[in-house]
Fold these 3 entries.
Entry 1:
Amino acid sequence: MNEAKRSGGGFVACAPDQSRSLSEQLILAGDIRDAIDHHEFTLHYQLKVAMKDGRVIGVEALVR
């Protein structure tokens, strides 16, 4: 979509390798949905620590 907007013509041709990339993305999205349905992800919290003084300045939530 962004490429089509940049070209000004409202459309852009897709190369075969781009289509493959899209199909791989769709497969990955399906795999992620399946993993969620089967409770295969776990949530982990990781502290963000200031190197200067060792103080906790935040936290990140990671899904694995």
Entry 2:
Amino acid sequence: MKLQIADCRLQIGALVIALSLVCGLAVADEIIDRVYAVAGGFLIMQSDVLAARDLGLVPAGNAPDPNRAVLSRLIDRALVLAEVDRYAPPEPSVQAIETALDEVRSRFPTVEAFKRALDGAGMTEAHLRETLRQNLRIRGYYEQRFTVVPPGEDELGRYYREHADAFTRNGSIASFEDVRQQVLQMYTAERRNVLAEEWIAGLRRRADIVDRYGK
């Protein structure tokens, strides 16, 4: 009888320890994942910043504080999404979303490495698809809102020469005729981004942004 009581106490003790560990992990998760900012009605969590950084969704460049750089871009994205939802641009096609997903996958050497990155970021593939869908909606909105005047041949040629590195393969620069369409796309995207950045700066001035990074 005493042995049974002792076994029961051991089982109860083990259960208490297990529950304590589970609770401890839950508390740890709450501490690890916290609100970094609120913008445009969207919560931006620490996990959002880490996922965007580690999956290459938002480039940090050579910023001294990569997380701050990514958070700044995610704040801009939240403000833009609030505007996009108001005007409802056309939905991207399923193929466009799959192409964007394939581009993210290509940043990793294997499928397993890609899945590990998703797990490490606390993101499912479905969540990633939705993020890419929203990114494509933003791109569609930009194309509608910011019209870029087509450049003349002289201006396009100058852009080609000034960005020769982008058209160089194996040490040789491709001819202008071979990459003309790519030059035009890069030129248009760059000019559109300039217009968009000016517009976003205005959104920031008018928006209520709560930035808790580093606090």
Entry 3:
Amino acid sequence: MTHAVERLAAWAVDSRSRPLEAEVLHHAKRAVIDWYAAYYPGSVAAPATLLEKAFSLQDPRTRALIMGSAAHTAEVDDIFRDGIYHPGAPTISAALAIARSLELSGMDFLRAVVVGYEISTRIGAAMGRAHYKHWHNTGTIGCFGAAAAVSETLGLSREKFSHALATVTTFSAGLQQAFRMDSMSKPLHAGRAAEAGVTAALAAREGVTGSLDVMQGFGKAMGDDPDWAAAFSTLGRDWHITRMTFKNHACCGHTFAAIDGALALKARMKLAAGDIERVRVGTYRAGVEVAHYEAPRTPAEGRFSLKYVVATALTHGSVRLAAFESSRLENPQTKALMGKISVAIDPELDATFPRQRAARVAIEARGGRREEFLQPTRKGDPDMPLSDREVEEKYLELAAPVIGAEKAKDLLARLWKLESLPQVP
């Protein structure tokens, strides 16, 4: 009997003899650029700055932990929509920690990233809504992305690759309850997943074995017992990395359709924020339950307040990092508008989650004007993607304040030709 982890390992190892398609390679570079965009603002904030004080940076496991946490802190990292999962923070962080340690080429690193994405996104999609009810997929599913990517950087055999995946399955953790109140736990989930993947793959390289049938128990214990054979049937044909969501707002992705819809409706009605008397938002259940803060007091709470991000979009025109500075959180106009916003679960839109992230927004304005707008997807989703130029602009906006404009531009140029670099930057 071939177990799920063995099938995944066989695909990864067999794929080494085939070059990556140009489209896959291009999208892998987009993912890496977007990872750097998310990493830099998180690298100068807690918990990354605190982890650097707590641990030695010499160990690649620690580097993966810190980079993974940093890349998930500012809430601007990528999403695989169908898996309700941020693959970049754990997968790229783990791959980069080992690639730098081994001085691997840019192409070897990119292949590892692709392998990590393709394996983990399928596990995330198979586990589905049943898993997301209580678990934080970036922590749980991210372990597989990290372990697969590192196994690829190490060139593990089928057998050892299988054992790395089997071992990391038992490390899978991360509860949504950990970010139902203000804490640093959420970004730590991504960092811990990256660290777990490095640990499992390095251990497997030396002969540590795992239970090869473990995915059967994982699916039953933490999901609704998915069909793993069906989940992996499109490996090597349908490349998930080519349809990633890149965030266009610096907050919880469940709020994006509501933000986009509110901005579109405001523009269509040609309103100023002061003209708005009432806003009604209908969206899917996760958007209501995860982005639940009614009166956010901290940046973390603000990023998970659907009412706040919609109000700040309507008052300031965007939801970037500045939206979560203390002066903006206390902005009187934004706070007044929040009191005019109501949020509810729309059964029709909830039925299409997670494959579709939509919101229905209605605005009532002075003079009795009322209009409604259905935002069927989010700006940045695969059916409304950010262009390469927009990905670049996002990266420069977020990286330049941390490392300087010239250094950011130089790194960007190198990342676009990463496959030709003898060593990862």
